[in-house]
Amino acid sequence: MHLLVCGGTGCRASESAGIEAKLKSELEKRSLDQSVQVISTGCFGFCEKGPIVKVMPDNTFYTQVTPADAETIVAEHVVKGRRVESLIYTDPSSKEKVEESAKMGFYKKQLRIALRNCGFINPENVDEYIARDGYLALGNIITGMKPQEAIEIMKESGLRGRGGAGFPTGLKWDLTARTEADQKYVVCNADEGDPGAFMDRSILEGDPHSVLEAMAICGYCIGSDKGLIYIRAEYPLAIERLKIALSQAREYGLLGNNIMGTEFSFDIELRYGAGAFVCGEETALIHSMEGLRGEPTLKPPFPSESGYNGKPTNVNNVETLANIPVIYLKGAKWFSSIGTEKSKGTKVFALAGKINNVGLIEVPMGTTLREVIFEIGGGIKDGKKFKSVQTGGPSGGCLTEKHLDTPIDFDNLIAAGSMMGSGGMIVMDEDDCMVSMARYYLEFTVEESCGKCAPCRIGNKRLHELLDHICKGNGKLEDLDRLVNMSNVIKDTSLCGLGQSSPNPVLSTINNFKDEYDAHVTDKKCPAGQCRDLMEYFIIEENCVGCTACARVCPVAAITGERKEPHLINPAICIKCGACMEKCKFDAIIIQ
Amino acid sequence: MSSIKIELRQQDIDKIKEIAASFGNREHELINVLHKCQEHFGYLPAEVQEVVAEELKAPVAKVYGVVSFYSFFTMTPKGKHPISICLGTACYVRGAEKVLDEFKKELSIEVGQTTGNGKFSLSSLRCVGACGLAPVVLVGEKTYGRVAPDDVKNILKEYND
Ligand SMILES: Cc1cc2nc3c(=O)[nH]c(=O)nc-3n(C[C@H](O)[C@H](O)[C@H](O)COP(=O)(O)O)c2cc1C
Ligand code: SF4
Ligand code: FES
């Protein structure tokens, strides 16, 4: 029997390490520690209900486990073979207990390719990866295939880069392979800068070897013996697991000189990012690895011609790489049978925001937003109304009700005015103000612009200022045209992908929520009730019983009224802190 | 550069030299050297940057250019209990800004500052990968999830030492 405990960052933050220790000590107490193994795995994906403990082989899925529950799990489930009912997930709509993960709404529509090992193996033990056919693809390729044959398979599979742009991976390998040079590099982009996305990190934490194996395969194909992983210093757990994986792979001769007794040698080094979103852009990333400021340079030359130290460099994203070993094991046909016509395979999304099941999911391309949000995601939190979903992070746009039945793939999302991006998916409800959201993303861009070119450095700042004015009630009608015009100029004239995509949140919110912008500039109202400067707190006379709770909590004494008489808020004094509304037990205070 | 003037002790200088040497005093290892120095000193004051520049035979301006470019590098010392509030999108839409405002109010400092007694410093960051627990606050190594503005006082109380 195995007890799998989630050791991903989310569950670690809720004491999953304590659960693991407690399970082990309880097993030891009963002298069961030889027959029952406790394994710390990567993320199961169902972060909303973490920490997760899964019992194998009977597949029982326990949610929201605490260290104190560990004893019950051992005493009941392990010893007596009885499931612990109280820890089993209850389906919120049917109110039924669902014991096995495969039957849960969250997992039913998912298909795990890139995440195939996350939550199944101990990422700190290479033997477990090998037991699930790890390094088999590498072995097959370097002992039985010419590089060009392997590249052809990659092309046939139809895999496109998961880092954002969706460039065909096989083609990129081919280009780098064709460039002649004495030294080439394979780079893994693990910078993951989209705020609110944690796909790549979870893969590295849960299945680091799949990335290492894929990098070695790529090295063989393009003729490189050196790999570099550029990872954010903010990801300590992922770094730790990569280090362990690297040393185990070297020990087994799966990396290093003459891998598996062949002529092929390949080794990998780690390089650390230092907190700059633009360093996810491949040319900036390369400069950062060279010890410079991470400023992008014009393409061409593309990294495949001139990259790290001026040598041909193949840059691939973590998730792209995680797909690769299994494509070689199961074949290009198998992979290209999944997905849509031009987007093959699956995509991992970090589902977050106002949604019931926050977590990490992987679905076939072509799944609709409705399926993702309402079936897998379990719908909107607190029974609120769905308003929009942002894909592509700060470079993407918002999608609304009318896009819910669009099959998700690279091209459809672009046609809908957003983009795939790296896979962040933030769901918003009726309480979220779209103007504020655009301002939020622009604030991010302004902070993260490297400052090299004027349209992005200055233009985004102006966009942010305009949005800020509008949110504060100082906007004018003509500002909306200025927003659109300026956005288009920034898109057309910026040097790198950051500036070229940064106005997208502005354009898409104006496109889809024009009325909300209008309300801000003409009526000076925020329909979602989020822009503080446009709100007025108001007491409904009929509901107010005169309990005086609001008047007592108001920090600036803006509320007056006699005991047992309806109270009144003086808008001239009110600082709109909302304390009164929180305090009122009679729903007498509203925002207008 | 930074206004804080500090005097490096000989052992500090030796430490920087040791770090630089471990990377072969190569200029393109600058970022790795800075990471190690920040790990050791907790921050990167101008004086440290000058020694790094000398050891790697790089202009001080280049070192400063790199330090100021990357948000992970800081030139001011952090508090004893550094507080970071996640302002990633998932945390933002679940009300992280209100939590940040509460910390600012309670500590009377702005983001990037340290309290007068050196106890707390305040910073924001973007997504720590625990979006399921949004909004997320880190105090030192400890993660707090689903933080509401009302919880702020109690969190700070835990560090009443
Ligand atoms: C501003 C900006 C940020 C980016 N951030 C990332 C990132 O965090 N991770 C990533 O893999 N790719 C990122 N990219 C895309 C990379 O430039 C590059 O296209 C990608 O790493 C290539 O790998 P792929 O073909 O496997 O997707 C970013 C691009 C831009 C313009
Ligand atoms: S578009 Fe922005 S981030 Fe890109 S090079 Fe120009 S200033 Fe730098
Ligand atoms: S956005 Fe805050 S943890 Fe991800």
Protein architecture, described:
The complex is a heterodimer of chains A (592) and B (161). Chain A is an alpha/beta fold. Chain A has 5 domains: 2-102, 3-Layer(aba) Sandwich (Glutaredoxin); 126-335, 3-Layer(aba) Sandwich (Rossmann fold); 346-429, Ubiquitin-like (UB roll), CATH 3.10.20; 445-523, Up-down Bundle (de novo design (two linked rop proteins)); 536-591, Alpha-Beta Plaits (2-Layer Sandwich), CATH 3.30.70. A 5-stranded mixed β-sheet of chain A has the order 12-11-15-13-14, sandwiched between helices. In chain A, strands 2-1-3-4 form a 4-stranded mixed β-sheet, covered by helices on one side. In chain A, strand 3 (53-56) and strand 4 (60-62) form a beta hairpin. The longest helix of chain A has 18 residues, at 454-471. Chain A is globular, with a radius of gyration of 27 Å. With 161 residues, chain B is an alpha+beta fold. Chain B folds into 2 domains: 10-69; 81-157, Glutaredoxin (3-Layer(aba) Sandwich). Chain B is 43% helix and 11% strand. A 4-stranded mixed β-sheet of chain B has the order 2-1-3-4, covered by helices on one side. In chain B, helix 1 packs across helix 3 and helix 2 (30-41) runs antiparallel to helix 3. The two termini of chain B are 33 Å apart. The chains are: A alpha/beta (592), B alpha+beta (161). Chain A binds chain B through residues 8-10, 12-14, 47-48, 50, 193-198, 201-202, 233-235, 271-277, 288, 290-294, 350, 352-354, 358-359, 390, 393, 424, 426, 428, 432, 437, 440, 444, 450, and chain B through 27-32, 34-35, 65-66, 69-73, 87-94, 125-134, 136, 143, 145. The complex binds flavin mononucleotide (FMN), iron/sulfur cluster (SF4) and FE2/S2 (inorganic) cluster (FES). Flavin mononucleotide binds next to strand 10 and helix 20 of chain A.
